[in-house]
Amino acid sequence: MTLTQKIGQRFAVGFTGKTLSAEFRRLVKEYKVGNVILFRENLENASQALRLTGEIRRLIEDETGWTPFIALDQEGGVVTRLPPDMVNVPGAMALAGDRQAVYEAARITARELKRIGVNVNLSPVLDVNSNPANPVIGVRSFGSNPELAGALGCEALRAYTDAGLLCCGKHFPGHGDTAVDSHLALPLVDKDIAALEACEMVPFRAAIAAGIPAVMTTHILFPRVEERNLPATMSRAIITGLLKERLGFSGLVLSDGMEMKAIKDYYGVPEGCLAALAAGVDIVYICHDPLQMEAGLQAAAYRYGEGRFDGEEFDRSVEKILEYKEKYACPGSKAEEGGDIQRQNALLMRRTITLAGSAGLPPLGVRPFFSGPLAYRSTIASAKPDDSLSFASWFARHLGGDGVQSSLNPGKAEIETICSRAAGHSAIVLGCYNAHLNLGQIDLAKALSRFPVPFIAAALRNPYDLQLMPEHTVKLAVWEYTENSFEAAAAALRGEYVPQSRTDFLHQESFPKTEV
User: Fold this and answer.
1) pLDDT value at 281 more than 50
2) What phi and psi, each to the nearest 5 degrees, are found at residue 445?
3) In the CATH scheme, what architecture does the domain 353-501 have?
4) What does the pLDDT average to over 348-377?
């Protein structure tokens, strides 16, 4: 292999649009890029997705001689990439009460990815959500219990392995104990190795013992492990010393997106890529900006030419990538067939809708009232509202009554306006979205709960919101802000089935009690 081909194998890039851009084709032809990551913006429907991955595979095979890894972040729940005509399963924490459901969800996901030519799923999440104020992990984790997170992560791994799909545990050594989103800033976890071993690394150790083929790094500072003010992705002490040597991991190490602000704003993307490669990361991901992609590839070639990489180690990494491609990336095995998976997923979604306690759902009456904010999603640029789906409007349309959309963190005047609109209704359903981080939603809940009608709080992401609700609230964990979850919750509110009741998903750390 030429040096350009070797470097190309150690990078993965993305592109904009639903067809291959001229810029992407140029990068592959000139720099022999060997791997690709796709996002929802790339995928219109299953047929188009299959055509697209076929074109990607042919282009990269023609230019490099090897089949590419084609990856998606298809966790389920709040992080999904598949188009509407495909199946997006529930997320990790929603499934955590049912081990068989974890396996079934991963099996469905593997089947869906393989039928469109995707051979890498950047999942499962192995983070222990030990900090309830975590703004980015939360329900993406299997929960705050390290042993349970490890056991359930291994169930997902087993399903992916059975399907022959390469999966990737993330985000090593753990993103669960942060109150900062690494898309937007540089988090810090002030724990030594012993503390990490007792919590964050428990699921990773279990998954490594079970044979997980890939692990993704995290862009977080761990100053008691790496003293040079470098995040884990760029730290040889963490990637080689901790992951490979201490935990004995010999599979592929993948970076999180290198354009996230934790890298871009503090170190620069090219320098971050160079440090990650030197630290022991096998494939670095530059997902969005062609200029950053080219700069990273050029910097790697220049650094190699200067003799700044260990040549033997670099070659071993390339050889390992190609070995895993022979096992997982080469086409040939067909996707598993298996009945009506849309219906299977709808039933699976109903199994996740959860009452936090033993009280059943009250009838909504003839004129219910719904209120709640839009969801928001983190990108490399911001955390912005997603106006494609409105809880209040959707439920009023499907269950009758009226709906009023609230802001994410309503103030006194807005709360008074919403309460005036709620007067005279037969029941009130409040959708909350990370209310434990946006306490105006809790103030709204207190005000609405004073009406002498049934009051239901539906947690549309982290269920920790429910611990802050007034005592007489009927508390429903819905887990995600999607039409799939809304349909399952609406069926429960209509009385079509009785949701499961449990409280083990609530965070082990208590929140302050609220007073009405």
Assistant:
1) yes
2) -60, -40
3) 3-Layer(aba) Sandwich (3.40)
4) 92
Beta carbons of 194 and 232 less than 8 angstroms apart: no
Question: Looking at the annotation, which residues are catalytic?
Answer: 183, 256
Q: Give the position of tokens 């993406």.
A: 140
Query: Is this model's pTM higher than 0.90 or not?
Result: yes
For the chain, what are the domain ranges?
A: 3-328, 353-501
Contact 240, 276 (CB under 8 A): no
CA distances from residue 67 to 30, 324, 331, 483 in whole angstroms, order as listed: 17, 11, 8, 36
Please name which of 65, 43, 60 lies closest in space to residue 52, comparing C-alpha atoms. 43
Query: CA-CA distance, 454 to 472, in Å (whole number)?
Result: 9
State pLDDT tens for residues 12-43.
999 999 999 999 999 999 999 999 999 999 99
Helix, strand, coil content of the chain in percent (nearest 5): 40, 15, 45
230: pLDDT strictly greater than 50: yes
The pLDDT of residue 382 is: 46
Architecture in CATH for domain 3-328:
Alpha-Beta Barrel (3.20)
In sign, the C-alpha dihedral spanning 433, 434, 440, 444 is positive
